[in-house]
Automatic annotation (TrEMBL):
Catalytic activity: aceneuramate = aldehydo-N-acetyl-D-mannosamine + pyruvate
EC number assigned by the record: 4.1.3.3
Domain of life: Eukaryota
A Pfam family that the UniProt record links to this protein: DHDPS
Species of provenance: Dendroctonus ponderosae (Mountain pine beetle)
Protein name: N-acetylneuraminate lyase
Subcellular location: Cytoplasm
Amino acid sequence: MVNFTFRGLMAPVFTAFNQDWTINTAIVPEYAQFLADRNVPGILVHGTTGEGSALSVAERKRLAEAWVAAGKTTKQHIMIQVGGTAFPDVKELAAHAEKIGADSILTLPELYFKPSNEQDLIDYLREISAVAPNTPLLYYHIPVWSGVNINMEKFLTLSVGKIPTFQGIKYTNNDLSEGYNALKAADGRYAVFLGADTVNCASASGRKACHCLANFQLVQPATALGFDSVIATGINFLPDHFNSIMAAVRANKVEEARAIQEKLTAAVKVVTKNGAWVPTMKVAMNAITPIDVGLARSPLKNLNAAQIRELQVDLPAVATL
């Protein structure tokens, strides 16, 4: 039986690229320390924010190794997302994550031969668990992007005792009623990370327009409902906002938490007004922190020079508490 006790803030870190689009692993120790110094105890590698699906298996392994090594110094929890590729590669990445000493593994569902029900998903996760039998495994529920919309309360209830290393989910959905039910499923035995950075928009263009709102407008109400753990892109460059919201809710300072939430949402609206989620967030990271993560890799579309400059000018004014 594996043990998974991590709770709190986890930054889904960006993949830093050099100008020739090779991955920049040299920056990882500095990046990890930057987050550790700002009370961010967890790191998620190769999530949506980290452009995991735009990397080769070899690149993903190399970057995972860099983060695990850095985490040993900073004492941060390192979670590696292994999904989003061919199933043999998913299992190879999971086995590699365990070999290098990752603290936990997260996986997307199969994205082509999609699971259609709870048992399909249990069977899929059981195969991944088998190749990393000593590492906690979590499931990445992001139905707007994966196309897999299995009810998480029912899935968690049915999964008990069926996946040896299974410990919880990253819940990336704006439906807080289902999220709350997931928190309470199976007598609350599973970790449920709020990761709601998408909403159920009807089109890709709609997704882009409202991508930020669930992630940042849900933090305060979700924490008030009982979520004690968050994985959100903005933790990379606005960690004080997230820490302050969670502290205010724990202290029952509802109005203070709501006020900080409004500042967080205002900042993210400035960030995302001219482009898609990852490209705009990377520019924001570069603009207000000392960590240069470069631009987003193709097929993502980056901002033009004028849009980058606009964000660099406008963001600092709204990014402080």
